[in-house]
Amino acid sequence: MASSGAVTPASPKVVKIKAAQPGVAQFGCEHIQGFLTGPPERLEKTIMHYKNCLRVIFDHTPIVPQTSKSSKGQVLTSLTPNYLCLQCSTTTTEHDCLEHGNETSHRFYVESKSGSLFCQMCNDFVWDPTLEELRLRKDGTGSFSTKKRKQDELFTDPSKEDAGVILTNTVEAPCRASGIRGIYNMGATCYMNVILQSFVHNPLLRNFYLSDGHKSKNCDYDHCMSCAMDEMFQDFYAQESTSGYSASNILASFWLSKRKGYEELASNKEQDAHEFFQFLTEELHEINGDGKPSSQQENPSPKRLKTGNETACKCIVHQTFYGKLQSTITCQNCGDINSSVESFLDLSLGLDMLSKKKSLKVSNLSVQKCLDEEYKNPERCEYTCHACGTQEAKKQLSIKSLPNVLCIQLKRFKQFNGSASKIDTKVSFPLKLEMFPYTNRARVQDSKQQNFELARGCTYDLQSVVVHVGNLESGHYVSYSRVGNQWLKFNDHTVTLASKSQVLNEQAFLLFYVIQSLA
Amino acid sequence: MSANNSFPQKGLVVPAEDEKDDNMLGMTHAILDDVFYNIIHDIVLQTHREEKIARAASAAIIIQQRATLADPNNTHDSPSPVGESTKAGKVETEAAIYENGTIYLKGNPLATTSELRCSKCGLPRLLHPTDGNGARKPESGVEYCKKRPFIDKPHHDIYGQTFQPEGPGRGKKKKDMVNPLKPKEDTPAGSQDSPAASPPPGEGPQKPIPFPHAKCQHCGQFLPVRRMNGHMLKCIGGGGRNSSRDALKKIQNGNGNGSQNGYASGGSRHSTPAPSSQPNNKNRSSPNKRDPGEDFDSDSSPQKKQKKVIKKPLVKKLKAPGMMKSASQHSASGLSFESKPPPSDVEPEEDDDDYWDRKAALKNKKKNPIIKKVIKPVKKDEKNWVGKVKADAKPPPILPPDTIKVKLEVNGKPESREESESSQTLSSP
Question: Which of A70, A380, B329, B348 is the one with CA 20 to 30 A from B389?
């Protein structure tokens, strides 16, 4: 629903009913219509009240909205939803709701778990466009302001642009084109297919390419990877075809790119999907960013951009995938703190190291536990303090800024004594990932005083999962992606439905999480 | 929320009647009960939200369509209902009111609207898949939106296409292949007949998703998509893991064998030349050309071998004399390329000659005047070689192999040493 948020750019203080849109009813029901179309003060007051209710629900511990006073003055805290009156500050249980309505003829209530609006006259939940938008924004980002995170400029408000220009220059995609297609295996290219599928279903990249982010007509690079990607996105979202897509152009661009450090990747052998991911992001960064492909970027290590002050790059890849890690080294003797910041493309979680530790049981390893280990718990490190010279130091990694799309790699392949092997440990991963505990803000704050608003902005939804099946010699990559609420399994050119439990039971290799405010 | 109303008393988990009344037990039940209730509540609410919003939108779309139809000013050719096109007029259905471009709902859309309309094309959505799990027969005579529910059917993808290859014996588990006598669900929009119910007689077994051909960006060739990556290796290559390794091997082997002649024939890691290619080897390679001082044993052995083998190819060649002639009579380049076995199978000394030939030929083509002198002896060589082939074709002047070798040696020797080395380095990237 957030995607349809074509709101008239209203200053936040002036309360307005959401502008009429073709194909969408103006109000959720007749009753709320009568209520909101009354005198303007009432509208303003109602919206303010609704915002207050949402703040109570989302910004504080759930105990507050879950506690109500019965008519006898008895305080009651319930696990099941309560109802907050929209017209006064009463909180009622589901039972007393009707009673309160009859007494005061207050007919609108806010449900205490999700913030949904309940209309007593309809005797049903009502999804009013104006109020629902507020709710979604609060739920997703943790604040009401329309100003989103840094991705805001990626979503140019269509109403701001000239609608006429858009109408005349674009073609409406056919209903059939859903972006769900397989990609043919071109001979051991499943490592490529899974990454491409995860890109296709990445909302940021999709919007970038579908909004003409890379102008292929003006592009003068030979065998430009971004042009090939553009073509792929167009094919996926504008063609009615249900058969697979042959990504031969991407493969050709891949072969022809000859990027340093990835030369060995292009071959007719099975490759590491993660390496291809790194290659692809870097390639797209150079094409779309400031750095032109001709002028090779100065960073010597392609895997990780070492310098933290490379935020200048506004390319789509950086806006999508890059976050920042902060590592703080604290001397145990003198307390000298040395911290450095580096940007990261993905978080790599080691599995073999963790399973060796006794503190963690191998049987139920989860992504959160791995993250705990790497980004929450300090570790001892080899470091000589330049102030006092002691070698006792603690290293603390934390995330300074979170990316819009978080890629987590579970290191399933390890090198041991020169021979590679695969770790088949099952690692459970959540559909919703809370990243707040791993940020450095969480560290600064007292853990008791939780910041719900911030935490809500750090919630990620699972978008794609890349799975490696089989062993090292004869393996195969399969990917799962979510389209709306439906999970789909992509196995080269075949696409089948998948259930959530099927997805969650897989041995994930790469996980793509999209920040909740976008999903 | 009608679901809630049917459970005024939350009672999903109820203790059995004969259980003892225990505080802890009661609490556990209550908490568990509430937790279950919440889970179900959330799921129902989520579904409710989706459905109600979709229904409300459908009601709005329907009334908008009515309004556009009713509007006299609106010429019928713009099917996309834009609210602004109808400024005046009020249209009312049982679900909504349309007034001056704004739509107001009337009643609960869940009750008043029964179908879902696509917001893009305004056509009703098909609500049930046409095949597989939960399939229902769509109503006939209705044109549905092309966006259809996904099909959940074993061996079929979400569009109802099967990806299972036809026929048994293609894989291990293909025996339990589903009956391929399934019609295509994927007929374009407007197909009303239910494919699931009765397979149309005209259609044969459904074919699996075909593999198309794709164009290679590099050379413009069309290839089956499955072979694309392999093709890229050959076509673009260079950066590949194997090609670099192969190139390295080639270089190392070429040089190595060139210097260590002792291993060349018997112990070389190369595959020993096949008998069919032997005559070429024989004709042009001269074991004597190797440094005579280095190893005599190895020198002698290949000679013997070749002597033995040589008779067979002679017979072979007789079978197709015309071919050989026509090929050989042309330019030197044609000859050298034609007779040249792939370099990896070639013995080093022969490499020398071969590269030399090739190089000379290339130079010849370029018509570089400076090299003409150099070319001359080579041409002789070639003529000699050609003559030899001819001679092979026509039985009479059978020369003992040794003499030919000597001749070759005489002709080929002068510059071959230096040139061969340089050419080797040139030709191997």
Answer: B348
